[in-house]
Amino acid sequence: MSKVPAIRVLSVDDHPLLREGVATLINNEPDMTMVAEAASGLEAVQGFREHKPDVTLMDLRLPDMSGIDAMMAILREFPEARIVMLTTFEGDVEIQRALEAGARGYLLKSMPPSDLLDVIRQVHAGKKRIPPEVASQLAEHMGDELLTQREIEVLRAVADGNRNRDIAEKLFISEETVKVHIKHIMEKLHASDRTDAVAIGVRRGIIHL
Amino acid sequence: MSKVPAIRVLSVDDHPLLREGVATLINNEPDMTMVAEAASGLEAVQGFREHKPDVTLMDLRLPDMSGIDAMMAILREFPEARIVMLTTFEGDVEIQRALEAGARGYLLKSMPPSDLLDVIRQVHAGKKRIPPEVASQLAEHMGDELLTQREIEVLRAVADGNRNRDIAEKLFISEETVKVHIKHIMEKLHASDRTDAVAIGVRRGIIHL
DNA sequence: AAGACAATCACCCGAAAGAAGTATTTAAAG
DNA sequence: CTTTAAATACTTCTTTCGGGTGATTGTCTT
């Protein structure tokens, strides 16, 4: 019989226990093997360089940089890298950003391990896999306009408790312009006021507290 | 030589991979054994009734109820239960509530597994263990006055994007009273306005989005 | 070149929010 | 039985916010 080489996996997560769980799961599968672990974005890039895993499982929030940034760093160097996000539920914007940046899959830590194995195999075979829970969350806000970079800056400043006048000073624009930005933000997010806008922005992963 | 009975552990977390990691870690220790797992608060209570574990590891956010509520439910029935919170970082208020409600320890998922084992042994021996990272976070807001239940209700309503008038209607009080509550909230949280109050409330674990 | 969009600024106006003070009622704590 | 704390309510005053309308500039796309 012909022996197929095992799928070599890299796990990136700042929770040792989670990595341990992934390692146990992976190494119990005959056709998979865990080749490395990383607890931060930098470690992830180094680990990828060193081991060239077939599939990388990447958490979204890491101590040094976001998982998306870490993924982009890897993809710049290895465009054919197969990376799957594995995270607790985040807003639809995070999901979208991850997929646009080149993630081959998006898994939730609450999913059954069998789904995880399934997606790893599919991604290794060159496919993309987005589970229905994630896809439907994504579809929820399909038509919605995205905030511009400037609007996100303003929203962050609002979330920090700044008045319009303070935001104007910090961004070197007039208070009137700030108001226009906030008006657009509230329209795009369907928010009733600035506080609601911040809450929605956080829920959807547009900003972080 | 006398054989000491192993420490029997129950793990409560809605992430299967995390539970798997805990199980692997525990079962690799000669003096510990994993007797059950639970993915929700209800399962946790049932699992405790059935197995009477020596130490219970409990996540803070579960699908059906908060980990603190689940812990309180268990403690009502078994006051001598030894429960340790094991979670990602939450606000100081969550930590305080957990400890006041009877948690014997508070661990972060980002800590090294050896710390976890250490705390389990200490708690099993009847001690309480709060790691320094957690303790210092707790000390940060030691002098601060806590929000009253009513104030938390109002803050939740603010976070939902309600105007003062709407809050007044929903809580069956006058708009003036709502203003007084919000003034007190902002003073206690050192917030510059209602939006800041919501942001701080979320960061400190007083409310959730 | 035309059109679309993002970012900028201005002026007006009414609605809301926030600051400060006073006061009553009830409930808990001493 | 006081004292304290929480929740309630009202008045006055100032500041801030948010809606509407309109305009300019630069960039990018078609």
Question: Which helices and strands occur, and which strands form pairs?
Answer:
The structure is a homodimer of 209-residue chains.
Chain A: E1 7-12, H1 16-27, E2 32-38, H2 41-51, E3 55-58, H3 67-77, E4 83-87, H4 92-100, E5 105-108, H5 113-124, H6 132-140, H7 149-159, H8 164-171, H9 175-189, H10 194-203
Parallel strand pairs in A: 1-2, 1-3, 3-4, 4-5
The structure holds a DNA duplex (30 and 30 nucleotides).
Commentary on this structure:
- Two copies of one chain form a homodimer.
- Chain A has 209 residues and is an alpha/beta fold.
- The first copy, chain A, has helices at 16-27, 41-51, 67-77, 92-100, 113-124, 132-140, 149-159, 164-171, 175-189, 194-203, and strands at residues 7-12, 32-38, 55-58, 83-87, 105-108.
- A five-stranded parallel beta sheet of chain A has the order 2-1-3-4-5, sandwiched between helices.
- In chain A, strand 4 (83-87), helix 4 (92-100) and strand 5 form a beta-alpha-beta unit.
- The first copy, chain A, starts with 6 loop residues before the first strand and ends in a 6-residue tail after the last helix.
- Chain A binds chain B through residues 14-25, 88, 109-113, 116, 158-163, 191-196, 198-199, 202-203, 209, and chain B through 14-25, 88, 109-113, 116, 158-163, 191-196, 198-199, 202-203, 209.
- Taken in chain order, the helices and strands of chain A follow as EHEHEHEHEHHHHHH
Give the overall average pLDDT of chain A. 95
End-to-end separation of chain A = 55 Å
Q: Helical content of chain A, roughly?
A: 40-55%
